[in-house]
Amino acid sequence: MKKSVYSLVLMDDVIKAVDQQAYRLGTSRSNLINQILAEHLSCVTPEMRMREIFGQVAELVSSSFCVQEQRSPSLMTVRTALEYKYRPTINYKVELERAPAEYLGTLRVSIRTQSAALIDMFHSFFAYRAKLENAYLSRIGVDSYSCEIGEGSFARKLINTRTLDPDQAGAAIGEYIKDLDRAVKTYFAAPKEFGESAPLLEKNYRLLLEKYII
C-alpha cells in the first residue's frame, strides 16, 4: 500500500503511550498510529490482513499443533513432535509478505535434532515432496513453485493466486501444513514401508489442490 509523509501535532502524553505500546509490539510509532487510525476508520492494513490469515491458520491447526506466541505480525510458528525416538520437534514457520505479489509469503520447516541419520531422512523426504508438488502444480499450469532444501530445513514460497481472500488464504495455508505434516509423520513412522503409503498421501495432496493452490 502506498504511503506518504504527513505532519501531526499530538499531545506529549499520547506520544509517550504510543511509543510504549509500539515498543511492546515490536513496531514503529508511525506504523502503530497508522494501524490505530485504520482500525478506527475501518481501513484494511497489511497487519489486519495478516492477523486475519493467521487467525484462520491457528483455528485449523490448534488441535494438533502447538501455536507459538507471535512476536511479529508477519510471522507465525507452530510446532509438533515426531513419533520417533527422542521425539524430535518439527517447526513450521510462516512469514507473510506485507504487499504480496507472486507469493503470499514463505513456509519454513525445520527439525530440531543432532542426529545425522534423522537429518538425512528429513532431506530425503523433502526431496521427494518437492518433486511431487512441482510435478502436480506443473500439470495444472502453475510454474512458479520455488523451494530450498538445507540441512534439516525446507523452505518453499506460498503461491499467490490472487483469488483468495484472507480467510481463504489462511485456510489454504492451514490445510497445506496439516497435509504436509501428515506426510512427514507417515514417512518417519516407517520409512522403509513409505512406498505403500505414498499413493494415499499423493491422493490427499491432489484433493488439496482441487480446493486450494498455495
Characteristic key phrases:
single chain; 214 residues; alpha+beta; 2 domains; 6 strands; 50% helix
Describe it.
This protein starts with 11 loop residues before the first helix and ends with a helix. The longest helix is centred in the middle third of the chain and has 24 residues, at 116-139. Helix 3 packs across helix 5 (166-189) and helix 5 runs antiparallel to helix 6. Strand 2 and strand 3 (89-96) form a beta hairpin. The chain has a six-stranded antiparallel beta sheet, covered by helices on one side. It has helices spanning 12-25, 29-40, 46-61, 116-139, 166-189, 194-211, and strands at 66-67, 75-81, 89-96, 103-112, 147-150, 153-159. With 214 residues, the chain is of the alpha+beta class. Helices cover 50% and strands 18% of the residues. The protein has two domains: 7-43; 46-211. It has six helices and six strands, in the order H-H-H-E-E-E-E-H-E-E-H-H. The chain is elongated, with a radius of gyration of 20 Å.
How are the secondary structure elements laid out?
Blueprint: H1 12-25, H2 29-40, H3 46-61, E1 66-67, E2 75-81, E3 89-96, E4 103-112, H4 116-139, E5 147-150, E6 153-159, H5 166-189, H6 194-211
Antiparallel strand pairs: 1-2, 2-3, 3-4, 4-6, 5-6
